[in-house]
Design a protein that fits this description.
Order of helices and strands: EHEEEEHEEHEE
Radius of gyration: 17 Å
Number of helices: 3
Number of strands: 9
Helix content: 10-25%
Distance between the termini: 11 Å
Length: 144
C-alpha cells in the first residue's frame, strides 16, 4: 500500500455472543426510537445484561419514556471505528423498550450505571435484545 492510499477492508458478520461482548465493552452508544413520527437518536451510556438486554437511564419527560411505556420497538447501536485504518466494529440491538419499575432492580441499576450527564436520571429503561447484528471491518493484506 502506498502512502495516502486507503487500506482495503472487508466486512465480517459477528455472532450474537461476540457482538454483545463488544457492546458491553463500549463506553456509550445511541438509542434510536420514534418521536412524533420521526426518528430520534440520543447518545447514552449503558449496561449489557447477561441475557443481552441493554439497560440505560433517562430523565423525567424524556421522549424515550413514552416509547418504553408503550413497549415500543427501539434500536441501540454502538461502534468503535478507526478512520485512519478503516477498521473496527458496529453492533445494533433491536427490541422492545420497557420501563424498569421494580424497586430492587431500579436501585441496582441506579447504583451500577452512572449517567454522563449531570441531571436527574431517575428512570431506567431496558431494551430487550430480540435481534442482535454486528459487523467487524478487517484490514486485508496488500495484494489480496
Amino acid at each position: 500500500m502506498t502512502a495516502g492510499t486507503p487500506q482495503r477492508v472487508h466486512m465480517v458478520e459477528l455472532g450474537r455472543d461476540e457482538a454483545l461482548k463488544l457492546l458491553a465493552e463500549a463506553p456509550l452508544g445511541r438509542v434510536v426510537f420514534s418521536h412524533q413520527a420521526l426518528p430520534a437518536i440520543r447518545p447514552v451510556n449503558h449496561l449489557v445484561e447477561a441475557n443481552g438486554d441493554i439497560v440505560i437511564r433517562t430523565h423525567t419527560g424524556s421522549a424515550l419514556l413514552g416509547r418504553a411505556a408503550l413497549s415500543g420497538v427501539v434500536a441501540y447501536e454502538a461502534d468503535d471505528l478507526d478512520p485512519a485504518t478503516r477498521t473496527g466494529w458496529s453492533v445494533v440491538v433491536t427490541g422492545t423498550a420497557s420501563r424498569v419499575s421494580d424497586p430492587a432492580e431500579l436501585a441496582r441499576y441506579q447504583a451500577a450505571l452512572t449517567p454522563w450527564v449531570d441531571t436527574e436520571m431517575a428512570h431506567v429503561v431496558r431494551i430487550r435484545a430480540d435481534i442482535v447484528t454486528g459487523y467487524r471491518l478487517v484490514g486485508r493484506e496488500p495484494g489480496s
